[in-house]
Amino acid sequence: MTTTPIPRPTHRRHVEATGTDPRARGxxxxxxxxxxxxxxxxxxxxxxxxxxxxxxxxxxxxxxxLDDIGRFRPGARAEIEGIAHGSGTDLWRVAALNARTxxxxxxxxxxxxxxxxxxxxxxxxxxxxxxxxxxxxDWHVELSGAWHTQEIRGGRHGFVxxxxxxxxxxxxxxxxxxxxxxxxxxxxxxxxGGVPVHVLAAIVLEEAGSVAEAVELVRSAPLASSGxxxxxxxxxxxxxxxxxxxxxxxxxxxGTLVRTNHFLTPAPAADEKTWLYQPDSGERYDFxxxxxxxxxxxxxxxxxxxxxxxxxxxxxxxxxxxxxxxGQRWASLATVAxxxxxxxxxxxxxxxxxxxxxxxxxxxxx
Length: 366
Fold this sequence. Notes:
By secondary structure, the chain is an alpha+beta fold.
């Protein structure tokens, strides 16, 4: 296996947009992404083609997804339209980025990436609760330059975090103290025909002020693809299996939510695309769970350290194998730590093993 350091931009893009009008806010976002979007679109075009998905199918799926978004939240569609306008990009192209998970679900040759998420709930001596979380965002190394941190304000709640270029949202925390970690899962019925999971993540961060509100919102959304939201605020935490079969909460064990890339509840697991993730996902899950059983993490720093792995261990810290072809070069592109109590997202342009040698970008939702 030939591994190499992941190429990092000299200055990682940070996008800021404020405004109560979603389309105008999208225009501001698009203007800041004008130079970046062509590279992201070109790489996804290559991944779609590698998966045997024609350009005509991509466009049809993107336009259908845009209509589904508009029916559920017209404001989210308007914001995507604004990004397209502000960046000078065809609307269907930006819609395809937002629905990239759903479109790639058609592919049998380009499996999703690998992410590991941990959320810890602790109780102090005075009985007060604290929650905090950390995750790796693992994806194709070819997209290592196609993401940015963001600060979005003007909706019900402002939010900060990380997302891919052109995509409304992914991982973050909002001004109400609601945090969201995000993983992709795989179900045989995954596809286009509902609200894309990345768009739903952005809607949750903008609208929900608590875990209870977030769960209610997610349950109200039409879903045609799968994912996992780890949702937590200052006092509560829940891990959800999202799928075309429904939304299912995962039982919490030992005060820590652990998520890799397989379903943890029976109903969606019955129709899981096990060939996409296993045995890797189960190995990563068992490895970090065993670490936590031996030494429960009491601080965000200790929780992040659980994600550091090396030679001979499951690839929680994921380095790209450059001997493999496009579509199989997985890499931990970023590490993200969320703290609802301080409304902060800390984003590291690197792997968990880079903690201490690279600086976190600290974003505050207010």
